[in-house]
Design a protein that fits this description.
The structure holds 2 protein chains of 2 kinds. By secondary structure, chain A is mostly beta strands. Helix content of chain A is 0%, strand content 49%. Chain A has strands at residues 4-7, 10-13, 19-25, 31-37, 43-51, 54-57, 64-66, 76-78, 87-94, 104-105, 109-113. In chain B, strands 2, 4, 5, 9, 10 and 11 form a 6-stranded mixed sheet that branches. In chain B, strands 1-3-8-7-6 form a 5-stranded antiparallel sheet, with no helix packed on it. By secondary structure, chain B is mostly beta strands. The chains are: A mainly beta, B mainly beta. Chains A and B meet through strand 4, strand 5 and strand 10 of A and strand 5 and strand 10 of B.
Amino acid sequence: NAGVTQTPKFRILKIGQSMTLQCTQDMNHNYMYWYRQDPGMGLKLIYYSVGAGITDKGEVPNGYNVSRSTTEDFPLRLELAAPSQTSVYFCASSYSDRGLNEQFFGPGTRLTVL
Amino acid sequence: GQQVMQIPQYQHVQEGEDFTTYCNSSTTLSNIQWYKQRPGGHPVFLIQLVKSGEVKKQKRLTFQFGEAKKNSSLHITATQTTDVGTYFCAGLTGTYKYIFGTGTRLKVLA
């Protein structure tokens, strides 16, 4: 199993550009999450999904959109990039049956907006 | 809004010394998880605590969940250089959402 994979690893955007961060998991997990981590800070939840076709906002959703058409994929869309979106983005997945729901993280995408 | 704070923010210890990080939530948590993030890496799950007053051990690591389920701690006995990294707690506040703490960055001096 590859676990959680993210592409790209690095990206530089100009202000106003758009991009999609890709996230795929092969563990058949029902829950998926997007977090951002600013330098020296903790992780902030952007969006999450509890299954295909179901998404909901986290703590910091403004400026982002998500979709979950399959169990495996959970792309994050930035429509009009702003310098405040410079951060490291982590995708995570977990399987929860109301018991242990360990989150497995991808390697991250380092995004810089200039 | 809901917040999860951790103290200290940074800790430098000599190898062999003990280390403790504390996690405090503004609201009661359903459960709490702990993660370790090495420099330049991604968070890796360490443990999950669910019950009030729960204590779990993993070799040199001891995790506690407070009686009121609003605080938690991670204690490392006799730190090693491999313990270097940032330790995060993450509290389950709603049905599916985890709020991550601010993290404690541990540096171990050989």
